[in-house]
Specification:
Largest sheet of chain A: none
Strand content of chain B: 25-35%
Structural class of chain B: alpha+beta
Oligomer: heterodimer
Strand content of chain A: under 5%
Number of strands of chain A: 0
Number of domains of chain B: 2
CATH superfamily of the largest domain in chain B: P-loop containing nucleotide triphosphate hydrolases
Strand order of the largest sheet of chain B: 7-8-9-3-10-11
Shape of chain A: globular
Radius of gyration of chain A: 20 Å
Order of helices and strands of chain A: HHHHHHHHHHH
Number of helices of chain B: 9
Chain lengths: ~230, ~350
């Protein structure tokens, strides 16, 4: 059995989660500070990928990153490589569909965040960076964990947009979800079942790890003296 | 060392126009909720930006709309004690204090933290998280965190509002001690005249976004000058009034004409008298002595309250006395007297 879909899936999901978290934090942080109209607009655009069917998303990605698309041309000029069917195409499509889940979760957390904590930090002379990393983020930990889990799960299960942009090239772009599909299509039900079990195991493990990471913050909030 | 503010900020409901000078003293900002007290503090701290004006602290311009100066909050050195204490919930008391200390060695930091914790009576609570502290302890920890930053001004925004009566009193005494030791200006915001009266040296009364009166606290209480200052200093009896020649003043709502001891330079628009300053009298010999109709008699925790009407259909006045005074009185005398020197003559809204 060729295990490459496992590595490709893990690589894709992990890198896409990192990108989603990084971009999502920046986007959510600034979106909260926008005016109402602009915020609605930005919000709509950034959330679109989870509302559109993944294949439609993939269609737009193909337009953008195709040989004649602006993204594709920029990429070719910079790295002398084509995006479509490359090994990082699955990462791009997974990031695009996973990002909104993290962004939405964090935006909600930032919006509800107690502004007096920020103001008190400022009047005490703390820098914006300190307030963000040491005050805002730690106190948004449950949302941070929830958003990361959601983004990881979505990235791991990505199929529609990936098949459009990255195709099904074994050892290069075939992820577990695509492997399950092609195994079933070829009538290899035993192989499909193996991939399904592996996927279940990864998803479950990821959830456990994240829940464990998110649990630490809760003890302090209960107010029970230790 | 002083604070000098002259700002205008337009808000949805009203326009805030605050002009205030304060030296190294404790200034009470007294006002009803929504009068612009907190907004004034927020403008000084830089959390809100005024539309126009200047804010100067110890000779340092924090804000100047004409010279385009607007220091960010973290460069203003303004200590701001929030109603909610605003301690960082993810850090212990010690960590909360440590994180605002900058440019010191580890040993210096440790000593600074120990010093301020013992000064605020929090020696054994350094390792606790804010959620494990009582309301008063939170406020003390927040004040400790402010003190170690050595601010040029300390601003307290209704620090007792979340506490019950007993803790309130305890914290008030601790706070008073800290503020007395502090060498700069302190601004204390409250809607409670007793707190302000006990803690502060001078008072500024805010009403509808404007400073209605300001100055020495005795002066404000004895001669509030404006209707809103009179109300906020706790005067229960106020009536529209007009001068009718000589020292006579017609007290419209009470249905009587009063004799004043002296008249203010501007025309009198309202007259007031504190509930404790009205006295019962056996004969109508003294000025401003009237027969009355007793509308209601109430017993308060430590005092008696009488609602008395000086003429038919007029608004009743509130008269208060202690239980001892009431017992000494025996039966209720037939007259009440409003001593001329106790009348508060108000010339402004």
């Amino acid at each position: 059995m060729d295990y490459s879909p496992l590595w490709i899936s893990l690589r894709t999901a992990c890198v896409a989660t990192v990108f989603s978290v990084a971009l999502g934090l920046v986007a959510a942080y600034y979106a909260v500070r926008l005016g109402r109209v602009l915020k609605g607009l930005v919000d709509g655009i950034l959330t679109l990928p989870i509302i559109l069917p993944p294949t439609v998303c993939g269609y737009f990605l193909l337009l953008f990153f195709g040989v004649s698309g602006p993204g594709g041309r920029l990429f070719e000029a910079l790295f002398h490589e084509r995006v479509v069917f490359s090994w990082y195409a699955p990462i791009i499509s997974a990031t695009v569909v996973a990002f909104p889940l993290f962004y939405r979760t964090m935006r909600g957390a930032f919006e509800e965040f107690d502004r007096t904590l920020i103001h008190s930090g400022q009047t005490l002379g703390l820098s914006g960076a300190f307030i963000f990393w040491r005050v805002i983020l730690p106190n948004c930990r449950p949302s941070l964990v929830a958003g990361t889990v959601l983004a990881f799960a979505r990235a791991l299960g990505e199929f529609g947009a990936t098949i459009m942009l990255a195709g099904n090239i074994p050892g290069k772009t075939t992820t577990i979800s695509i492997a399950v599909y092609s195994a079933m299509a070829a009538g290899q039900t035993e192989l499909a079942k193996k991939w399904v079990l592996i996927d279940l195991a990864i998803s479950f493990a990821a959830m456990l790890i994240m829940n464990f990471a998110g649990g630490g913050a809760r003890r302090r909030d209960t107010g029970v003296a230790r | 060392m002083a604070l000098d503010i002259d700002i205008i900020k337009r808000l949805p409901g009203f326009t805030l126009r605050v002009r205030l000078k304060a030296g190294d003293e404790i200034v009470g900002l007294l006002g009803a909720s929504g009068s612009g007290k907190s907004m004034t503090l927020r403008c000084i701290a830089g959390i809100e930006t005024p539309d126009e004006g200047v804010i100067i602290l110890n000779g340092r311009p924090l804000f100047d709309s004409e010279r385009k100066i607007n220091l960010p909050p973290r460069r203003r050195k303004t200590g701001y004690l929030f109603q909610s204490a605003a301690l960082f919930p993810n850090m212990t008391v010690e960590q909360n204090i440590l994180c605002v200390l900058k440019g010191k060695t580890r040993e210096e930091k440790r000593r600074a933290v120990e010093g301020v914790l013992s000064r605020m009576g929090l020696e054994n609570l350094g390792k606790r998280y804010p959620s494990e502290l009582s309301g008063g302890q939170k406020q003390r920890a927040a004040l400790a965190r402010i003190l170690v930053t050595q601010p040029d001004i300390i601003m307290l925004d209704e620090p007792f509002s979340a506490l019950d009566t007993y803790l309130r009193w305890q914290l008030e005494q601790e706070l008073a001690a800290v503020l007395r030791d502090f060498t700069g200006t302190s601004l204390f915001v409250s809607h409670n005249r007793d707190e302000v009266y006990r803690l502060c040296d001078s008072i500024a009364v805010l009403s509808g976004g404007q400073i209605a009166a300001s100055g020495d606290k005795w002066e404000i209480f004895n001669n509030p000058q404006s209707h809103s200052a009179c109300l906020l200093t706790g005067c229960k009896n106020i009536t529209p009034a007009r001068q009718t020649g000589g020292l006579s003043i017609a007290a419209t709502d009470w249905g009587v004409t009063l004799q004043a001891a002296a008249l203010p330079p501007e025309p009198v628009r309202y007259a007031g008298i504190r509930a404790h300053d009205i006295a019962f009298a056996d004969s109508p010999a003294l000025p401003n002595t009237f027969p009355y109709e007793l509308v209601e008699e109430m017993r308060d925790t430590f005092s008696y309250i009488f609602m008395v009407r000086l003429s038919p259909n007029a608004r009743p006045l509130r008269l208060e006395m202690s239980r001892e005074q009431y017992r000494a009185l025996g039966r209720l005398p037939p007259y009440v007297q409003l001593p001329p020197e106790k009348l508060l003559l108000l010339t402004r809204d």
